[in-house]
UniProtKB/TrEMBL annotation:
One Pfam family from the record: Sigma54_DBD
Residue span(s) of domain RNA polymerase sigma factor 54 core-binding: 152-341
Source species, domain of life: Bacteria
Residues forming coiled coils: none
Function description: Sigma factors are initiation factors that promote the attachment of RNA polymerase to specific initiation sites and are then released.
Low complexity bias spans: 67-123
Region listing for Disordered, in residue ranges: 67-146
Keywords: DNA-binding, DNA-directed RNA polymerase, Nucleotidyltransferase, Sigma factor, Transcription, Transcription regulation, Transferase
Family label: Belongs to the sigma-54 factor family.
Species in which this protein is naturally found: Paraburkholderia hiiakae
Name recorded for this polypeptide: RNA polymerase sigma-54 factor
Residue intervals of the RNA polymerase sigma factor 54 DNA-binding domain: 356-512
Length: 513
């Protein structure tokens, strides 16, 4: 028979504050900035701290109003009053609501005795949504405008084609058909959608049929750069050859190659090409050179919407022979508790369960967790630089194999914390911007019993291919043998995988006649 019984057990649970700390740590820099902006917009107890230039100006003018960046000493009495209203908060919110507890990522705890958010906090300028603008000022008494308003914006492919279409003498329906084709083009200039599908989407047989769209496509292909509006690589190259003067040497032979034998040319089957085309080796070489000068993606010459920005979390510099790691000032949280609002709340009769009390507590959690996020990322970055110091001196060939566990053991963190601190995080170095995960290559054994990293093997393969004879390129088997001579034992399929990861073609594709 069913029965009801009570069982007592213990289990670990993340408090709301720790959940927020874990979530902030695994965010990328852009997502973190967005999170802070949303908090500044919705929480009245948070205020944005002005830049240091603005702070100096306010200090010189004796400004001490709302939003001024006062010193920690000046803010002490205000925060003391704020703390007077916290006792009820802590009693009502429980242990996890204590503003001076411990923040834990995974299984590691951090003491916060060395940090205070009393007005000054861990602050740095937080960029606005318009990253290129320095302010939202739109002109003063003299009518001056921003310098960024004069920045040239590159015209996109579709904008250029629409402008050229206005000069074409077409009737209304043909113009609409051409506009439909222009909007269907990809960023590289190709039309990868079938004309029949465009006709179905844009209104059926009574308005835009397939024949009318085919005529409109021919018009679009003549509006600007040759090759725009092509439906395949062969057609794109053929359009560019058709646009050349008739007396261009070897133009007809090149046209036959791109329309009938493009795959053979890609596989460098020159003997078969000579037999199929009935030409000599010199003519084939000249026609092939003409084809290689063509542009396979003509749409890339136009502007396109920028995306996929990478904002580094830490910056690595060499100072007096030592590598120094610092947090990128552009991503540091420049926010603090609003002094005036906190004082007003401390003098009010609000209970610890009121919505304002919860918002004040959330503001303190956010500031401390944001500080702890930057501190953890900085510690992990310093550990990576210390362990991979040879990379910054000699390049990727000097990368050592490293595991997340190695960094976790050295810093006293949990491995999951290191994983969150390295995911979607980037490091700006004199050699470029690299993701944190780039510095954790897997380990490969050498003939002498030592180890090397997979990144170093890829760098060796790249050096060998760069130094090879173009007329006699190195195959994957030969590359495997050369690596064996240097003490690196890898299989041929591993060499093939690494070569493909670096987007290097096979030996047959690299051979030059």
């Amino acid at each position: 028979m069913p029965s009801i019984a009570l069982h007592a057990r213990q289990h670990l649970a993340l408090t709301p504050r720790l959940q927020q700390a874990v979530r902030l740590l695994q965010l990328s820099s852009l997502e973190f900035q967005q999170e802070l902006r949303e908090a500044l917009d919705t929480n009245p107890f948070l205020e944005y701290v002005a830049s240091e230039t603005g702070e100096a100006a306010e200090a010189a003018n004796g400004a001490a109003g709302i939003g001024s960046a006062a010193s920690p000493a000046a803010e002490g009495p205000a925060m003391a009053a704020e703390g007077a209203g916290e006792s009820g908060l802590e009693a009502g919110m429980g242990q996890d609501a204590s503003p001076y507890g411990e923040t834990s990522y995974g299984e590691t705890s951090y003491s916060e005795s060395g940090y205070s958010d009393e007005g000054s906090g861990y602050t740095a300028e937080m960029p606005t949504s318009g990253a290129l603008r320095t302010s939202s000022y739109r002109g003063g008494e003299d009518g001056d405008s921003e310098a960024s308003d004069w920045v040239r914006v590159p015209i996109t492919l579709r904008e250029q084609l629409h402008e050229a279409l206005r000069l074409s003498p077409l009737d209304d329906l043909d113009r609409i058909a051409a506009q439909v084709v222009i909007e269907a083009l990809d960023d590289d200039g190709y039309l990868r959608q079938e004309l029949a599908e465009l006709a179905d989407v844009e209104g059926g047989a009574d308005t835009l049929d397939e024949d009318r769209l085919r005529v409109a496509l021919r018009v679009v292909q003549t509006l600007d750069r040759p090759g725009i509006g092509a439906r395949s690589l062969s057609e794109c190259l053929a359009l560019q050859l058709d646009a050349m003067p008739d007396d261009t040497p070897h133009r007809e032979l090149a046209l036959r190659i791109v329309t009938q034998h493009l795959e053979r040319l890609a596989r460098r089957e020159h003997g078969e090409l000579q037999r199929q085309l009935g030409c000599d080796a010199a003519s084939l070489q000249a026609a092939s050179a003409l084809v290689r000068r063509l542009d396979p993606k003509p749409g890339n010459h136009y502007g396109r919407a920028d995306g996929g920005y990478v904002v580094p979390d830490v910056i690595v510099r060499q100072v007096r022979g030592k590598w120094v790691v610092s947090v990128n000032p552009a991503i540091e949280p420049r926010a603090r508790i609003h002094k005036l609002y906190a004082e007003m709340f401390a003098r009010s009769d609000q209970t610890s369960r009121s919505p304002l009390a919860q918002q004040l507590q959330e503001a303190r959690w956010l500031i401390r967790n944001a500080h702890k996020r930057c501190e953890t990322i900085l510690r992990v970055g310093e550990c990576i630089v210390a362990r991979q110091k040879a990379f910054f001196q000699y390049g990727e060939i000097a990368l050592r194999p490293m595991l997340l566990r190695d960094v976790a053991d050295e810093l006293g963190l949990h491995e999951s914390t290191v994983s969150r601190a390295t995911g979607n995080k980037y490091m700006a170095t004199p050699r470029g911007i690299f993701e944190f995960k780039r510095f954790f290559p897997r380990e490969l054994e050498t003939r002498t019993g030592g180890t090397c990293s997979a990144a170093a093997v890829r760098a060796l393969i790249k050096e060998m291919i760069d130094a090879e004879d173009p007329r006699d390129p190195l195959s994957d088997v030969i590359l495997t043998q050369e690596l064996e001579k240097q003490g690196v034992q890898v299989a041929r399929r591993t060499v093939t995988k690494y070569r493909q990861m670096m987007k290097l073609p096979a030996a047959e594709m690299r051979r030059q006649i």
